[in-house]
Amino acid sequence: MDNAATNEGWTTLQKIYYPLTIAWNFVLISTTILFIMQHDSPAIRYRSITLSVFMVIGNSLVTTLYLGREPTYDQFPCFVNIWVSSVGMPLWLTAVAGRFARLAFLYHFSQAKLVAGQSSQNSSTHYVDISPKEKIIHSPTLVLDQNWYYKHREKFTTNYIVKLISGALALQLALTLLVQAFTTKFQITPTIALGHCLVGWEFIPIYLTSAFYVFVLCPLFISWLRGVHDAYGIKRELMADFTLGVIAFMLYILFAALPALKDVIKLFPAAHWSVVALMISHVFSIILPTIDAIRGTDKQSSSSSMASFESMLEDPQQFEIFKRFSLRDFSVENALFYEHMMRLRVACSDLKGDRSELPVDVLLEINMIYSKFIASDAEFELNLEATTVREIRRRFQSKDIGLDVFDRALVEVRNLMFRYTYPRFIKMGQKSLQETDF
User: Fold this and answer.
1) Residue 51: which H helix or E strand, with range?
2) Alpha helices of 218-271 — where are they, by DSSP H?
3) For residue 69, what are the β-bridge partners?
């Protein structure tokens, strides 16, 4: 945009773009803080706070650059233009790709847990005699060792994805450093090149990597998400981010490359398509989930009643549907733990809690539940309070094992299901839940 003709034009643009840049960064920071404050909400936690913050940082870098340079683009330091672009856009794109990978893992890993849990009930379950009057169901080990997602779960942790993102950024910066060594248009020494550096061969590495993320990496993850359903709208949000990214990238290239659009660019610069896309993406990724988390916290108890929750737990058919829904809620382990505890309690209803009176088979069952749901390396590790976990582990270490050893954990699991999973289960009205794939 040629805005250097008059000082008045400069002043007008400065009055428009500088307050807009400051206001937008205020929105980014304030809403992200609120987003982080809701970290206890599953809807926020499963969106990966770290990767979401990376998206916000990339968003801030790109939008601040594209908006802040507009009033003085003909005197703007060119090296800032290329270096901020080399960090901001790849950071946002890789964070989106990382969230695609996390969602695919969460769903397929939950699916594997559910299949393992179902297999434990339907295949090898058998009855063990305790006395002429009573029997107990001895559940087989729920094996996940052969599952691909379980064996590679460390590669889908946020820390591992952050390392991959860091490596991708390091490669991008290395390419930019190489470009910097051969360019005069973006030179830093002996003098800093200024202005008229919005396009050039120097941006080819950024264009190529952006095209790779948009047209190769993200479509790969989209195919991976085929058949994936989540209760938080994360897939829908990521698809919106991807769609916005593709549209913005195509429009940016189109407007920047076609001379016929020169007059349009004077009114709406090509880079502003990226700004609009990033602003809308922030609404989807941060603002709306934060609002839902805040509103959801207040409406959890009003959306469902304890009586209806208890009724669902006591109805085998309804509980089975609820258990399948927990796959979409990424909380399968809660339903499986509750199911194991109910079977154990029913089978041991005539037994006392004193460890000295517990049959060997009952102790084996209790130890199996501990190893699968409570132990530090548990395949179905529960999201319990730290004090609860410490107390259970202390009792097992001291051999103080009774039928009441998991009581506190069971109360917490029931509360988690009632407060978080059940309201979403009711909200979806059980629609299409019976079609959940295994």
Assistant:
1) helix 49-68
2) 218-224, 234-257, 262-267
3) none
**Where is average pLDDT lowest: 123-137, 169-183, 386-400?**
123-137
Residue 427 maps to which CATH number? 1.10.167.10
282 and 394 housed in the same domain:
no
Within 156-217, residue ranges assigned H as helices are 158-182, 204-212
Q: What is the pTM of this model?
A: 0.84
Per the document, the length of the chain is 438
Contact 242, 96 (CB under 8 A): yes
CATH code, 228: 1.20.1070
- pLDDT at residue 10 above 60? no
Q: Are 111 and 118 in contact (CB under 8 A)?
A: no
Per mean pLDDT, which range of 70-84, 124-138, 381-395 is the poorest?
124-138
Average pLDDT value over all residues in the chain: 83
> 113 and 78 share a domain?
yes
Is the pLDDT assigned to residue 231 strictly greater than 70?
yes
CA distance to 55, 198, 222, 225, 228, per residue, from 218 (Å): 15, 26, 6, 10, 15
Whether pLDDT at 123 is above 60: no
Burial (CB count within 10 angstroms: exposed 0-12, middle 13-18, buried 19+), residue 71 = buried
The rounded distance, in Å, linking the Cα atoms of 29 and 51 is 15
Cβ 100 vs Cβ 221: under 8 Å: yes
129 beta partners? 135
Whether 244 and 387 share a structural domain? no
Residues 210 and 201 sit within 8 Å (Cβ to Cβ): no
Q: How many CB atoms lie within 10 A of CB 398?
A: 8
Average pLDDT over residues 88-109: 92
Residues 295 and 318 both lie in one domain: no
Of the candidates 68, 79, 66, 73, the residue with the CA atom closest to the CA atom of residue 191: 79
Please give the Cα distance from 387 to 392 (Å, whole number): 9
60-63 CB contacts, 8 Å cutoff, 24+ apart: 60/25, 60/28, 60/88, 61/87, 61/88, 61/91, 62/88, 62/89, 62/92, 62/274, 62/275, 62/278, 63/21, 63/24, 63/25, 63/274, 63/275, 63/278, 63/279
User: Whole domain around residue 67: which residue ranges?
Assistant: 12-126+137-300
**Whether residue 113 is found in the same domain as residue 215:** yes
